[in-house]
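Entry 14. Structure prediction run on the chain below.
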Amino acid sequence: MKTYSEINEKIKAGKAVVVTAEEVVEIVKKIGKKKAAEQIDVVTTATFGPMCSSGAFLNFGHASPAIRMESITLNGVPASGGLAAVDTYIGATEESKEEGYEYGGAHVICDLIAGKTIKLKATGKGTDCYPRKEVERELTLEDLNEAYIYNPRNCYQNYAAACNMSNRTLYTYMGPLLPNLSTVTYSTSGTLSPLLNDPYYKTIGVGTKIFLAGAEGFVAWRGTQFNSGAQRDENGIPLGTGGTLALIGDMKQMDPNFIAPAVYEKYGTSLFVGVGIPIPILNEEMIDHVSVGNDQIYTNILDYSVSDGPKPVVKRVSYAELQSGSVEINNKVVRTAPLASLKKAREIANILKDKIEKGEFTITEPVQFFDTTSITKPMKKED
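Output returned:
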């Protein structure tokens, strides 16, 4: 048994043993779980993929005379006017009024992080305390008082892969799906994926410090559609989607290399987010979880041509199969394509490993742990 404080003391002293989630799989094969649990202090996990449920809170400061902004656009992309006078929230999937899904909220967020200038346009009805009725400004990230990412649903524990059994191309958030079972797309980093390495949320909870797009961030809450009560296999891997995380972090500390806008043809805009989460090895149980390899992690391939009701499962496959480049379905070899970047996930896991080894990043014990029995419900049916 180890404690968070014991591991942090080793980190501060530069003596912590840190490995990535890919490395630990091979280490356990060589020395066994007991020795690995004794020797390893932290395992780093990571993902870099499209996370549509993302956005940013921004504060512009007060103009003179003051305005209560009710209708707001940033580079032509609508943002929320339903907050305080000069606060707003811009969602990653919001689309430009002029350019449509070719430019959206994700682009605004990334432009700000990259140091580019954006154009604010806002109007209000005018009140005694906020008499101004319109304002236009060109702004950079440094001109804002606060700018922080708040993503309500990131890091799906085990997202399903997608295929298309119909005879026409489908344009989806899983990318274009070619007809007649021609391609399978998937969007999880497999053995590196954070919540697959802590399937029962033993170390990841409210307050967990993370790597978020190059900055230090935190798990703010459980993510929306938190399906922690999903049925699981013998390794704790959910048969369905599983849990999600709500994440928060300072945009002014972020790196454009680890956050990027995405445009999906005939679908819309999304945001690629780089996330790294350290898993402290408190006991042998945690080694059990982090040493599960891609050949032991399975997900469902769903038929996205079915839109009414649950999408049918076409086949259950391992991430080793998906990452090989093809899977066999109904005696047909079908090409697979990742939406998430395994290369970037590996880069993030190694950056986080290096930071911990140098004593630049300590681990935090959650202030609140997640419920493990939550089940996601569909929308209430019409009366």
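The chain has a mean pLDDT of 97.
Filed with the rest of this week's runs.
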